[in-house]
Amino acid sequence: MNELTPPPYVEKFEYHKVKQINLEGKRLYEAPDGTKTPSVTTILSKTKDMTHLNAWKKRVGEQEAQRITTEAAGVGTAMHNNLERFLIGEQRKPGNNLVHVQANKMADVIIESALTDVDEIWGIEQALYYPELYSGTTDLVGVYKGKPAIMDFKQTNKPKKKEWVEDYYLQMAAYAMAHNAVYGTNINEGHVFMCSRELQYQQFDLEPSEFEHWCNEWLKRVEDYYVNYHK
Q: Element (H or E) spanning 129, and its range?
């Protein structure tokens, strides 16, 4: 594992500063021109069909659902931080904390299964915005297997099926559209690199052939948000 080196960082763009702010309990981003827009995750959560999630909460109980969600968030954050240290060339120190030890193993899986195929890094934890519509932060933007792409890291308690993760495709389309709009790129693919607690690797790919479809689906969600939830 120690022999693996991170992909080269290439300063291809002068990324604009986009500031994350909280206004009346909402997570917003402030673009360089001062306009404030909702985050991609805010739009997705507000416009999401909650039927399955609510049924799960009812089935396991509110307290247990909260415990599982909090624990997953902790592992996810630790894994992201571990991967970020790898990408910027810092030593990864899992320590003795069980969450961090597990997160380090999961990060190993993603590094070996996916990051070895990343040719260039343009931005890590990169804030992006689509003027006057939305903003957000992608884990990674750069070149994957020779093609410019949006990339995200995910952890999961159990492996997922493609039909359960529609939001991942919407998220990747949203970030690609924002990057294309502001920086004049032509990114039309994205990749989610996922590892389960049992160290099973999964990858969900937004292919160029599906890109337009998911962009249209994303814009429907944006419209739904502005019509029904935005004040």
A: strand 118-130
Check if the beta carbon of residue 106 is closer than 8 Å to that of residue 92: no
Number of domains, the chain = 1
The pLDDT tens digits for 60-107 are 677 765 766 666 667 888 899 999 999 999 988 777 788 888 999 999
5 Cβ partners below 8 Å, 6+ apart? 89
Residue type, 19: K
CATH number of residue 142's parent domain: 3.90.320
Place of tokens 């160029």: 208
**Average confidence (pLDDT) over 181-186:** 97
Distance (Å, whole) CA 224 – CA 213? 17
Q: Which amino acid is at 87?
A: L
Measured in residues, the chain has a length of 231
103 assigned to some structural domain: yes
